[in-house]
Amino acid sequence: RTLPLPETDNYMFILHQQAWETYTFQPYPGRIILFRTDDNSQDTQEAYVGFQTDPLLGWGNLITGEIDLHNIPCSHSTILGEPHVRVVAEKLKDCLEKAYRTL
User: Fold this and answer.
1) What is the DSSP letter of 63?
2) Which end of the chain is more exposed for a tag (fewer CB within 10 A), N or C?
3) Distance CA 36, CA 44 (A)
4) What is the sign of the dihedral through the CA atoms of 5, 10, 14 and 16?
5) pTM as predicted
6) Region for 89 from its dihedrals, namely left if φ exceeds 0, alpha if ψ lies in -120 to 50, beta otherwise
7) Pairwise CA distance, residues 48 & 30, whole Å
8) Tens digit of pLDDT for each residue in 84-96?
9) Residue 3 neighbours by CB under 8 Å, 6+ apart
10) Tens digits of residue pLDDT in 23-75
11) How many CB atoms neighbour CB 10 within 10 A?
């Protein structure tokens, strides 16, 4: 059965909230690739007095391995739309090729 969009959105929100409340984060010793958008930058957050953006968006406390950070010139809501998705695809392709070379 396919749920109407509003019901689906609400259901996904509830599932996400339950996962967030019950999951216990564990350190990860491997390497991750982190894509960061412009709306996560310090420049867009300067309107909030005393607000400081973590460059690693909280992952620095969980990842004990390497973090490969890539800034994408867009917002969080537009990252998978044209033309930004092409930038993400190219960066991800480069990361995968780099990973394959090190195997």
Assistant:
1) B
2) N
3) 13
4) positive
5) 0.66
6) alpha
7) 34
8) 999 999 999 999 9
9) 11
10) 998 999 999 999 998 876 555 445 555 556 788 888 898 999 999 999 998 98
11) 11
